[in-house]
Specification:
arylformamidase activity, KFase_sf, 23% helix, Glucose Oxidase, domain 1, nine-stranded mixed beta sheet, Cyclase family protein, alpha/beta
């Protein structure tokens, strides 16, 4: 049996990549939500420095629990701790998104990925790399609205999510944009794929960063957040440990 300290030392020697944006008062965010507020309660002139933060759960790089959209869904505290450290698979569609910001990732894209990299195993975290995070920290670039106020952003297709959930048994998914759904179908139908995903009791991490630094397979993703009571979401510190 491997000693935990040996495993720790091996992991420590690997390359670690920060997958979370740094969040500030002017960070891009879903416009219906308030921005982060931060103020000093005490300063070092008082003998110690204490800050007060006011922030919504869905801010910056964040995790969505099923209860975010679904009545009776799991809260963050109900996600198993072991489901916050997962094998990470990164489907790179950045070139396609560069050519078409309305790109939707499909089941066929996943099958093409598996043809090259092998079958995605049960219990994995699958991330959709679009390089949209390179638009950070511009709110306008992240939303990418046209003259009619319609958002042009990439997203997951329903067939892709159905395949990952029911045929591959993934634990979670993630992406670099604000939403699960692409912008154009959202304008017409709303966030139907986000509702579907959360209704299937799958959690997601949104507004990921630095996916361009990761291999297609072989890395681990670690997701951490405060131990909130009955939270529907939370900003996270997500990181990848590379093989």
């Amino acid at each position: 049996m491997a000693d935990l300290l040996e495993i720790y030392q091996e992991l420590k020697n690997k390359k670690w990549v920060n997958l979370s944006h740094q969040i500030k008062e002017d960070s891009p965010h879903f416009p219906a939500l308030p921005a982060l507020e931060k103020k000093d309660i005490f300063t070092l002139k008082d003998g110690f420095h204490v800050q007060q933060f006011s922030v919504v759960g869905q801010y910056g790089t964040h995790i969505d629990a099923p209860i975010h959209f679904v009545e009776g869904g799991r809260w963050l505290e109900e996600i198993d701790l072991k489901d916050l450290l997962l094998p990470l698979f990164v489907i790179d569609k950045s070139k396609e998104v560069e050519e078409n910001p309305d790109f939707i990732l499909t089941k066929q894209d996943i099958l093409d990925f598996e043809a090259e990299h092998g079958k995605i195993p049960e219990g994995s975290f699958v991330a959709f790399r679009s390089d949209w995070s390179k638009r950070w920290p511009s709110q306008d670039a992240m939303r990418n609205l046209d003259d009619q106020g319609i958002q042009h952003t990439p997203g997951w297709g329903r067939d892709a999510l159905e395949f990952l959930i029911h045929e591959r048994g993934v634990t979670a998914v993630g992406h670099e944009t604000f939403d699960t759904d692409a912008g154009l179908p959202t304008a017409e139908h709303g966030l139907v794929n986000e509702y579907y995903l959360l209704a299937e009791d799958i959690y997601q991490v949104e507004v990921l960063s630095n996916l361009d630094q990761l291999p297609a397979k072989g890395a681990l993703i670690s997701i951490s957040f405060p131990n909130w009571h009955q939270a529907s979401g939370s900003p996270v510190r997500a990181l990848a440990i590379l093989p």
